[in-house]
Amino acid sequence: MPPKQPPTLADLEERMRAIQARLRRRKTTVAVAESCTGGLLAAVLTAHGGASEFFRGGAVVYSNEAKTIYADVAPDLIHGHGAVSSVVAGALARGARARLEATLGLGVTGIAGPGGGTPGKPVGLAYVAVDSDAHSAVKKLQWPYDREGNRLASVGVALDLLEAAIA
Fold this sequence. Notes:
Layout: H1 9-26, E1 30-34, H2 40-45, E2 55-60, H3 64-71, H4 75-81, H5 86-99, E3 104-110, E4 125-131, E5 136-142, H6 147-166
Parallel strand pairs: 1-2, 1-3
Antiparallel strand pairs: 3-4, 4-5
């Protein structure tokens, strides 16, 4: 069950300060391809000075075409599983990582709301993925928050997966 409140932007940025120190020590680089978070993940990753030492870059891949162009997600994956799926989230993480030659890739796709949901894929559904040589994972989430809360909570899970990958 999710917490009653999503994390705040300040909470996420503070978490990132500690994660950033570990990424820099390990000389680990990160790339992102994010959809429903709309660049929020990249903003949190770059909230503190020195982010250029680990952050390679990223893309906001809102449309299916952008997912294909910028993160090399095969159109048949999108058509077969839907843009909001574990398969596409994993492909986003792999594609960002490969495109930007990073150690780790993060991918986020979902339905932030308030509209856009369907009975099979309701508002608040999100998939967050991490990909590296040593660690790959995708988490399926169902958030109960408003649009901003769903976005913040999804970024929080991306940070969780990032921390697990560098542990």
